[in-house]
Amino acid sequence: EISMPRPDHPRVLCVANQKGGVGKTTTTVNLAVALALHGNRVLVVDLDPQGNASTGLNVPHHAGVPDVYDCLIDNVPLAEVAQPVEGIPNLFCVPATIDLAGAEIELVSVVARESRLARAITAHPEKFDYVFIDCPPSLGLLTVNALCAAQEVLIPIQCEYYALEGLNQLINNINLVRQHLNPTLDVSTILLTMYDRRTRLADAVEQDVRNHFGDKVLEAVIPRNVRVSEAPSYGQSVMTYDPGSRGATSYFEAALEIAMRGVNTGGTA
Ligand code: ADP
Ligand code: MG
Fold it and tell me: What is the pTM of this model?
């Protein structure tokens, strides 16, 4: 039994990349489950109107369910909308419903529009070891809210040809948020996803990313693995759907590295 250290203060990680389909949601769900299965108290905040993280964790998120929109726009406490994830003790999810689709526009005219999520998380009375915020594939106000609420940014990068394209824009946005809104925000973690070791391209992308981001890049790399993509249709993470699969073992390794780094650095808060 491998022991996973718990951080001595809550770590809030924003999982961001404005490109769609790079593995943000898959990474959020599987890291959250891995950490929760090893004794951490974990909250997933689904900040994508598509609600994929809610679906992946099998949390009800049909129209009418209290969701993250209510926290952002109507000041409803997170605790009132967080739902326990069935079968995974210590894991909770604030779902996204279709209501969230309007939030990007509605937020524009709201007071302190960039820090609504930060306020909601800070006001949360329960103690979590980790909060993961699953961002939509854009750099709009929802993602800005996530960047303001987090101490750390986790960027999943898909090992494909255009992997680094668009990353400058993301980094620029992170720098702007750091300068104006959240001075201690840190890009702490880069995770390579959907790695296909049969291709020389994947290897080249990995080298590029490691040269560029150095030790922010986790040693664990997530392979392309069909079990990972099957799991959500069973309302499960790959960690429970097929714990022995390469997808599950590599997400576990990534979770362990994240946990160890938090201990070694004393956290980034
Ligand atoms: P994002 O949230 O960035 O849009 P997703 O996490 O939804 O990306 O992933 C996009 C698609 O790729 C999904 O269908 C998902 O199941 C699939 N996928 C993600 N990671 C893997 C993987 N390691 N192996 C195989 N399929 C994957
Ligand atoms: Mg997603």
Answer: 0.96
